[in-house]
């Protein structure tokens, strides 16, 4: 359940189609992206790549879509600085360096994908444009010495590419490729000293803060990929020595800032609070993953209970912080999903997924609800909470022109694992779904869980043609729901 599918399931779809293939899936470039080319692809000139950028109005719309959703949840950029860089680019397009262009192209591609979700009638045009922009990003990245002299723009580009792969779910090969890609990003970040607070003394307060923030994002993404793939975490807690990001708003710091950064005290919520939380919880989550994935049998139920206690204590602290609404990074437009707290959703899915992984081994054992009751009920609770989150994002799509459904693509593997876990509990005859033992309570609880699974199935069916692997996931969920309905 930790991995969505086996790699062999993509064999019935061409990952690299012939150039003259018509109506191919838009997921059809190499799973090695951004390190692989299609056969016979002509090398793009800088002039041709710049010409692929849409008009200023359209490009700004794409950037706005990115800022409204992805940047709001992940905080990869410093938005005021990025906006100045965008203006400088449009003033002198030929003066932009390749590292920044790769980052800009990837942001445009993500924004284009979000705009496609907002306007389904433009799907064909936006799909082609998105692929063109990602190809340009790949080309620009490969023109830089990022493997031995990476810049912050290179590292941001790699983070954005991982998100593009996750959101679109091009194939199971893409999912498998994200773990080594985040691992590479971690190593490149360490090459530049992001992991060590000692290296920051060579930088201005602003640049040191940007390094701290980017390191928090990179560590989170690498942890998440280890969580999804079930593969070991390559980073050690001992190397995680960088300073916690400052709890500040974007406009409180700029490139000309000097002096000590005035970090606000929690529970006050700022633009960077999500990074503060991710940095704070990293050692605990890393320790949990190492224990769960250990090759020996040293991980015991008592260990799981202690980790559960620590993580839920932190979740309660964070819940208090996130009660206040988030600030908007830019002025909202008519398409801005103003009622969605993307940071809160990101953290909710993250922590629920960690708990699901923590308790999975014990929750699946026979008579787990008796022998390992905390693990059993936590597994059930977190699976249900994840699918409820998926349903809420789907229900909100009508109010924000599909943006919430598009954003939920980041969590497809989390939602699929939750669905499989719930099905596992429903199929087992000796698994209660409600604490009271009355028969009526059990029937009502079973129907509630089954209704949640139906909603999950309906959401998967809407995108079943996205890729061959995605279609297999939809078929599996549908068959399991049908089986459970017949057995009810």
Task: Present the secondary structure layout.
Layout: H1 46-51, H2 56-74, H3 79-91, H4 98-118, H5 123-142, H6 152-168, H7 172-191, H8 205-229, H9 273-292, H10 301-321, H11 342-363, H12 368-371, H13 373-396, H14 403-407, H15 412-427, H16 439-461, H17 468-487
Number of strands: 0
Q: Please provide the ordered H/E string of secondary-structure elements.
A: HHHHHHHHHHHHHHHHH
Radius of gyration: 23 Å
Which regions are unreliable across 5 or more consecutive residues at pLDDT < 50?
1-28
Helix fraction, binned, reads 55-70%
What's the mean pLDDT score? 84
Please state roughly what percent of the residues sit in beta strands, choosing from under 5%, 5-15%, 15-25%, 25-35%, 35-45% or over 45%: under 5%
N/C terminus separation = 24 Å
Shape verdict:
globular
Summing up helix and strand content along with how strands pair, one would put the structural category as mainly alpha
Number of domains: 1
Number of helices: 17
Largest sheet: none
Overview of the molecule:
The protein is 61% helix and 0% strand. It contains 17 helices and no strands. Helix 9 (273-292) runs parallel beside helix 11 and helix 10 (301-321) runs antiparallel to helix 11. The protein is an all-alpha fold. Residues 11-23 have a biased composition (Basic and acidic residues).
């Amino acid at each position: 359940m930790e991995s969505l599918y086996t790699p062999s399931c993509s064999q019935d779809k061409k990952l690299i189609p012939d150039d003259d293939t018509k109506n191919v899936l838009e997921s059809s470039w190499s799973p090695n992206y951004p390190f692989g080319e299609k056969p016979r692809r002509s090398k793009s000139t800088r002039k041709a790549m710049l010409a692929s950028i849409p008009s200023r109005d359209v490009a700004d719309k794409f950037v706005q879509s990115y800022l409204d959703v992805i940047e709001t949840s992940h905080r990869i950029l410093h938005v005021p600085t990025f906006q100045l860089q965008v203006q400088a680019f449009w003033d002198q397009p030929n003066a932009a360096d390749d590292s920044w262009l790769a980052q800009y192209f990837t942001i445009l591609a993500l924004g284009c994908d979000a705009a496609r979700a907002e306007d389904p009638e433009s799907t064909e045009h936006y799909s082609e444009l998105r692929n063109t922009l990602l190809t340009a990003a790949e080309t620009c990245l490969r023109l830089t010495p990022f493997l031995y002299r990476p810049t912050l723009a290179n590292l941001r580009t790699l983070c954005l590419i991982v998100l593009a792969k996750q959101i679109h779910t091009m194939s199971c090969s893409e999912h498998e490729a994200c773990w080594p890609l985040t691992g590479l990003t971690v190593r490149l970040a360490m090459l530049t000293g992001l992991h060590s607070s000692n290296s920051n003394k060579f930088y201005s307060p602003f640049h040191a803060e940007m390094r701290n923030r980017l390191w928090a994002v990179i560590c989170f993404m690498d942890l998440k990929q280890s969580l999804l793939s079930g593969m070991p975490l390559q980073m050690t807690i001992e190397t995680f020595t960088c300073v916690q990001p400052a709890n500040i708003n974007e406009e409180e710091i700029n490139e000309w800032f000097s002096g000590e950064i005035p970090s606000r005290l929690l529970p006050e919520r700022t633009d960077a609070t999500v990074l503060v939380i991710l940095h704070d919880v990293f050692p605990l989550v890393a320790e949990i993953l190492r224990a769960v994935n250990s090759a020996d049998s040293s991980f015991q139920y008592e260990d799981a209970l202690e980790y559960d206690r620590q993580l839920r204590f932190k979740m309660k602290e964070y819940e208090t912080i996130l009660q206040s609404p988030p600030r908007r990074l830019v002025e909202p437009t008519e398409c801005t999903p103003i009622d969605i707290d993307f940071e809160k959703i990101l953290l909710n899915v993250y922590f629920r997924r960690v708990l699901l992984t923590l308790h999975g081994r014990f929750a699946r054992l026979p008579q787990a609800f008796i022998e390992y009751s905390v693990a059993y009920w936590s597994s059930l609770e977190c699976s249900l909470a994840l699918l409820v989150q998926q349903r809420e994002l789907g229900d909100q799509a009508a109010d924000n022109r599909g943006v919430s459904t598009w954003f939920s693509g980041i969590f497809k593997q989390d939602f699929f694992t939750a669905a499989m876990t719930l099905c596992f509990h429903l199929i087992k005859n000796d698994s209660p779904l409600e604490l009271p033992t009355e028969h009526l309570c059990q029937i009502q609880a079973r129907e509630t869980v089954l209704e949640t699974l139906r909603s999950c199935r309906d959401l998967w069916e809407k995108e079943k043609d996205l890729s061959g692997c995605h279609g297999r996931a939809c078929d599996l969920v549908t068959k399991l729901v049908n089986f459970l309905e017949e057995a009810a």
